[in-house]
Amino acid sequence: MPKIKTHKSAAKRYKLTGSGKVRYKKQGLRHILTKKNAKRKRRLRLPAILSSAETKRVKRLLPNG
């Protein structure tokens, strides 16, 4: 039986929490920051938890966690 390979682009974008949820960094904080207010940028800095439907899809790409 061959080893299951990790999908490397998914591994760079997502991390699994201890309870098995999938954490990711929000988009929208790379450029054109002058027109975004401070409150919006502060919220974008925080990690977010993926929805349960998307979690199933991503966990298939990250077999070893």
Tell me what the structure shows.
The protein is of the alpha+beta class and 65 residues long. It has a single domain (8-61), classed as Factor Xa Inhibitor, CATH 4.10.410.60. 37% of the residues lie in helices and 15% in strands. The longest helix is centred in the last third of the chain and has 10 residues, at 52-61.
Quick recap:
This protein is α+β, with helices and mostly antiparallel strands and 65 residues long. It has a single domain (8-61), classed as Factor Xa Inhibitor (Irregular), CATH 4.10.410. The chain has helices at 8-13, 38-45, 52-61; strands spanning 14-16, 22-25, 47-49.
Essential attributes:
3 helices, Factor Xa Inhibitor, 3 strands
Helix/strand layout:
Layout (H helix, E strand, L loop, with lengths): L7 H6 E3 L5 E4 L12 H8 L1 E3 L2 H10 L4
Antiparallel strand pairs: 1-2, 2-3
| Spatial order of strands in the largest sheet | 1-2-3
How many domains, as an integer? 1
Count of alpha and pi helical runs: 3
Terminal CA distance reads 19 Å
Radius of gyration: 15 Å
What's the story with the biggest beta sheet?
3 strands, antiparallel
User: What is the CATH C level class, in words?
Assistant: Few Secondary Structures
Described by the principal axes of the CA atoms, the overall outline is elongated
CATH architecture: Irregular
Strand composition percent:
15-25%
**CATH topological fold name:** Factor Xa Inhibitor
Q: What is the arithmetic mean of pLDDT? A: 95
Q: What structural class is derived from the secondary structure elements?
A: alpha+beta
Poorly predicted runs = none
* Count of beta strands: 3
Helical amount among residues, as a percent range?
A: 25-40%
Task: Spell out the helices and strands N to C.
Answer: HEEHEH
